[in-house]
Amino acid sequence: MTDIVSADWLADNLDRLRVVDVRDGWEYDAMAHLPGAVSIPFDRFRTGSSDSEGMLPSRGEWASLLGAAGVGADSELVAYDDHHGVFAARFLVTAELLGHDPDKLHLLDGDFSSWQLDHPTSGDAVEVEERDYDVESPAETPLVDADRVAAASDDPDAVLVDTRDESEYATGHIPGAVLLDWRELVDDETRGLLPREGALSVLEDAGIVPERRVVLYCNTARRISHTYVVLRHLGFEDVEFYEGSLTEWEAQDRPLESG
């Protein structure tokens, strides 16, 4: 499963990993990057063409993008950004949803800043050999549709989770959803995940426990990507991912609650 790794772990394993920097291209060039990291900016995979499924890139676009960055189906990947990991998490979840082995996907805890504290960066251009990126669609997927989401609010064994901020939630949310701003699981000082017990306590306070089926949504599936990675890292097994999120929900003229 996709997990979260420390800068020290990454440093010890750097030679065998393909590290992906999802910051803007100018940041990669002007502000240095991890040694050997390739640049795949967030806006390159965030939106796809008309044949895309939801907000995911098409399989062909994704394969071309990763192959050009020297990523193969067998590559073990670590992704990072400079925004608490939310953009890097979206990259990793996209990879998982499109068929990359989730056991080979890792999020750098504490983003780029955690690496800079104790480890060297590089301004050198990284030369990669283009590879043929070919993975099969996964046999199982956490993706769910709007009907499945609507049913979750009436299911006592499920909890529907809105990962946006409090003001967005108050303006309008899917009926029955509980609020968990994704940033509540992040330590502002370290920019990384809260210590395990602290994170579990925050989740429990919102009614999010491993025994329940967890269904996640936000506006465009970016913020739920981070929460999804955190939950899987903490051992939650039944986590569902509403890729369409409120963009699709509102387009289908489905009801919202306010307050």
UniProtKB/TrEMBL annotation:
Signal peptide extent: none
Entries under CDD domains matching the protein: TST_Repeat_1, TST_Repeat_2
Keywords: Repeat
Domain Rhodanese stretches: 13-124, 154-258
Alphabetized Pfam families for the sequence: Rhodanese (PF00581)
Keyword Repeat: yes
Domain of life, per lineage: Archaea
SMART domains: RHOD (SM00450)
Name of this chain's protein: Sulfurtransferase
